[in-house]
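Reviewer 2 asked us to include a model.

Predict the structure of this chain.
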Amino acid sequence: MALFKSSTFGKISGKHGTAVAALFKNGTNILKVFRKASNPDTPGQKNQRSKFGFVVKELNCMRSVFTITFDGQYGINRVVSMAMKTSLTGEYPDFKLDYSKIIISEGTLNKTAQVRLEQVGGSTVKIDWNAEELLGRNPADNVNLVFLNQTSKSVILKQNVALSGAGSAEVDLPVNWLDKELHSWIYFTSPNGIQYSTSQYICQFKL
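Predicted model (C-alpha cells):
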C-alpha cells in the first residue's frame, strides 16, 4: 500500500489493473495492490473442509431433531460445531464420529444419574432411568428419547414418552430396524417445554 501526492497524473481513483486508488480530502492518494494468495488451497485447508463436510453429511439426517432441541433451523450448526471439537476422530479420508459424544440438547435441567436400555420383545425397547426426587429433578419433567439408525441414516424422536417420576418407558421401533445397529439418547424437558437438560447417550445396540 502506498500514500502519495499525484502531481504527474493528477487525481486518480478507482481500480487500476490489480490496484485500487482512492483520494483523501487533503489531496493524498492511497494505492493498494491486491495479490492472489500464493497457496489458497493448503493441505490444512483441504483437511478442515473435509472434516466439516463429513460431519455435516453424517448429522444431516438429524436436522429435524436439532431444529426442535436447539430452537430453530440453524440448530444443526451448533451441533456440527460441537461435534468438530469433541466427536470427530480419524484422519482424512478415514474420519469417524464418536456418537457417544454427540449432544442432542443442552440445558440446565438435571440429568439422570443412571439410564439403561433393554430389548423386551420384537422391536420394542424399555428404557429405565433413576427417578429419585432427591437428585433434584422434577418428577413432572417430560422424558424424550432419540434413536438413530446409522445404516439407513434415519432418526426417530419420541417426545414426552413418560414423566421423569415414572422411572421407565417402553418404545416401539420400526420392524425394519431389526438387526440394525442403533444409537440412543435421552433428555428431559420441563412441563412447559421451555427448559431442557443436556442430553445423555444411552448406548449403541442392535435390535
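Residues 115 and 129 are 4 Å apart (CA to CA). The domain at 104-207 is CATH 2.60.40.10 (Immunoglobulin-like). We have added this to the supplementary material.
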